[in-house]
Structures are given as C-alpha cells and as structure tokens.
Specification:
This protein is α/β, with parallel strands linked by helices. 32% of the residues lie in helices and 15% in strands.
Length: 195
C-alpha cells in the first residue's frame, strides 16, 4: 500500500512538471543570441502583477538569424548609447515566434521609467504602427505570460497594459495595441497603478 501511494505521488508530480513545462515557450538564452553579460543586475521582487507590452520600433524579423541580430543591435544601443546595464526589455519576441531573454524573470529591466522594479516588459520586435504582429509572436507572448504565472514569476491576478498607457509614447504601436486590448488579462483603466 505504501509503495502504491508513493508511485501515485510520483506520477502526480511528473504530470504537474510536464503540464507546467508544456506551456512554457522555448526561450532563446543570452548565449543563444550571443548577448553581452549585463554590467550590473538588480533583483526583481516576485511575483509581479504587471506585464507591459511594447515594441522596438525597428524592422521586423522572421528568421532566427535576423531576430538574433536585431536583439544584439538593440542591446548594443541600450548599453553603449543609453548607458543601460543591459538590454532594456525583460523579454523580446520576434516575428518568428521565438522569445529572446533579456533581464528575464529575475532581474529588473529598463523598459518603462517608474515601473521597471514592479513589472515585466515584453517587447515585440518591429514597428507595429506599420506592421501586423504575427500570430506566432502573439501566441509566444501568451505562452510566456502563462509560463510566468505557473512558475510564480507573475501573480495570478496580473494585468497586461500597453506601454502608451503609462508614459507618453506610441508604443506598442497601434496595430499591436489593438490586439492586446482584446486579451482577457487586459487592464483598460490604469489609474489604480499609474505613478
């Protein structure tokens, strides 16, 4: 009887692990995209309850090589021209549907002044005033957010907002903004969270 109970518990743990892992998208690590190490890190208190969607205002990318190059270029600009410690967004998402690691779940990013230490910033690669986000990119963002909740990085009652709702910017671009406004976790009225 004890052995059967042990195997049942083991099976439940395995199934939980498989379910949790299945929803997490593949994340291209800093090593995968040949990123520089950050100059300094500050740890993000978790779980956070806010996800800020933005865009990079760069050309889009559709292949792994193109997207990795865009991420490297963004990191170089952020670190060399803006003197950031690292690339700003927590994660970036390419038109190829791949997620690229920035500061990630654990470290404070530099994506939205006044909100960096209490949010995750997800930046879609492209200019979404002009371009439509790909379904692969949108699905990757949703899977990343779900993964964040399941792994305790995001609070279960988190909200998604557009960059433009918090600061004076066009980001995440009109077409991407129209998309994310239909998400179930969308927060329309940001007065309760606005600095």
């Amino acid at each position: 009887m004890k052995r059967a109970k042990y195997y049942c518990i083991l099976l439940v743990l395995i199934l939980q692990w498989c379910y949790s892992s299945a929803t997490c998208p593949q994340i291209a690590t800093r090593k995968d995209w040949d990123g520089l190490r950050p100059v300094h890190v500050s740890y993000l208190p978790r779980p956070v309850a806010l996800v800020i969607i933005q865009h990079t205002v760069t050309p889009t990318c559709k292949t792994d090589a193109e997207c990795a190059e865009r991420v490297r270029n963004i990191q170089s600009y952020h670190m060399e021209s803006l003197n950031y410690w690292d690339i700003g967004p927590s994660f970036l998402i390419g038109g190829n549907g791949k997620v690229y690691e920035g500061p990630g779940w654990l470290h404070v990013g530099a994506h939205t002044y006044g909100y960096n230490s209490k949010s995750i910033g997800i930046s879609f690669i492209g200019n979404f005033n002009n371009d439509e986000p790909t379904s692969k990119a949108l699905d990757a963002a949703k899977a990343l957010i779900k993964c964040g909740v399941e792994n305790g990085h995001l609070a279960s009652n988190y909200h998604v907002v557009g960059h433009r709702q918090l600061i004076a910017t066009e980001s995440p671009g009109r077409k991407l903004y129209n998309e994310i406004r239909r998400w179930s976790d969308w927060l329309d009225d940001v007065t309760s969270i606005k600095n």
